[in-house]
Design brief:
By secondary structure, the chain is α/β, with parallel strands linked by helices. It is built from 7 helices and 9 strands. The chain has one domain: Glycerol-3-phosphate (1)-acyltransferase.
């Protein structure tokens, strides 16, 4: 472990467990080394620090909006965590290139395909960058869902601890037998990945991917 993991982040973990009852029993299913692409939902400000600090000693990196670095304290914290700055609303090829290198070097990359916080914990329609990363790297993909954190603001105002629950799915690979990676194929792959994530969540959180009967696995290999 590096200095950040041994000195900086443990107090954040303690704070998270003080404010929340963290149900992390399933995190043992996540390998300690990569290459690995973790696909997760994104609810609010709470899920990143709790997720990251509960994966220690695993070395994990992921994307963070470039605006984060406008706040000096947050910028330092995210830099210590190895976060990759990304420009939202455009194809940030530099950020995607850095993410590819993370996977190619045998490390763990976490990505939230929704691209932004849901606020209410219900899945939103995902962006397709995850399909490109999964195909290019050949890395196994593992879905990780969490729920409960959407109640944090309401709970803390009433001095109530929040239940924060992790669910970890089975790993799989993304494969294409032949053909071009068209926009339609990227959409299909992303949808298949997101249904794997949705299946880990209670029904009320599945949102855009609520109808699990529509789930397919044309491009997924268990």
């Amino acid at each position: 472990m590096n200095l950040a993991q041994t000195v900086v982040f443990p107090p954040l973990r303690i704070l998270g467990r003080t404010l929340c009852r963290v149900h992390d029993e399933e995190l043992f299913r996540i390998p300690h080394k990569g290459p690995l692409l973790i696909v997760a939902n994104h609810v609010n400000f709470l899920d990143v620090p709790i997720f990251y600090t509960h994966l220690i000693p695993r070395r994990v990196t992921g994307f963070a909006k470039i605006e984060t670095w406008k706040n000096p304290a947050l910028g330092i914290l995210f830099s210590l965590g190895g976060a990759i700055p990304i420009r939202r609303g455009e194809v940030d090829r530099s950020a995607i290139g850095r993410a590819r290198k993370v996977l190619q070097s045998g490390k763990i990359l976490a990505i939230a395909p929704e691209g932004t916080r849901s606020g209410d914990g219900r899945l939103q329609k995902a962006r397709t960058g995850v399909s490109v990363l999964a195909l290019d790297s050949g890395a196994p993909v593992i879905p990780v869902a969490y729920f409960g954190g959407e109640k944090f603001r309401s709970n803390i105002s009433h001095l109530i601890r929040t239940d924060f629950t992790f669910r970890v799915g089975a790993p799989f690979h993304v494969r294409m037998a032949a053909g071009k990676l068209t926009r339609e194929v990227r959409e299909q792959i992303t949808t298949e990945i997101m249904y794997r994530l949705a299946a880990l969540l209670p029904a009320q959180y599945r949102g855009y991917y609520s109808d699990l009967s529509k789930a397919t696995s044309r491009y997924l290999v268990d």
